[in-house]
User: What shape does this take?
Amino acid sequence: MPRASSVEVPNMRQARLNDAAIALSKVLVANEVKHGIFGGCAVAALGGPCEAKDVDCLVASDKPQMMNLFGGEDSICPIGEDFVFFRWDSESDDPVLVELSLVSPSAMQSVVPRELRVRGESTGEGSTYILDEVCIFKGKLRAAAVRSKESDLADLAYLESTFHDKLWMSASQFNQHYVGLAVRRYPKLAEVFQRVGVDVVAAANGVKGVSLDDLWRPQPGDVQRSLLG
Assistant: This one.
C-alpha cells in the first residue's frame, strides 16, 4: 500500500468534504472494497485552487452492496446499475453529497488508489483514498469536454503544473475527442494539453462540425470509462 501523504490544513468547505471522505473510506476499507476519490474534491485535497461541492468516488462494487452499506432505499438513490448517490450526515445542517461510480472489481484490478491523510472539520485527521493523478486528470478532461464549469479549467491547469512529468508520460491515455471538445469550450486549455504532449491540432480537427450545444446524452459507464480508459 502506498505511504500516506502528509496533512495540509484545508479551507472550511474542503474540511467538511474531508469528513465525508474519511467516513466513506472507513466503511469501504472495513468491507475490503477498493475505491478512490476523484473530481474536484480530489484536486482540492491535493492543493488545487477551487472549492469542491461534493465527493466523487470510483468504487469496485455493485449497487446492492452500496445500498446495504450506506442505508438502503431511504437514504441512497440509485441511477441505473453503475451510479448511486447519498447525502452523508443527512440530518445535519450541512450534509455532503457523495456520488459513487461503480465498476466491477476486475475493472479496477490494475488501479492502485493512494492513501491520503486529510483533516476534517469534525473528524480531525484521518485517511481517505484517491485515484492516481493521471486518472483524476482524465476525469477532469471529460468534465471540461461535456459541461461549462470554470473550475474544470482551473483544476486541469493545476494538475498539469503540479504533476507535469507524470502526465507527459501518460499523454497517449488522454481521449482525443474529449481534448478537442474541451479546447473548443476553453481555448486556454490548448496550452495545457500541448505541455503534456497532446496533439491539440489533431484533436481539434476531430471535432470539427460538432456543436457544444448538441452533445450526446451521457451513457451508462461514461464516467468510469473516462477514468480507466
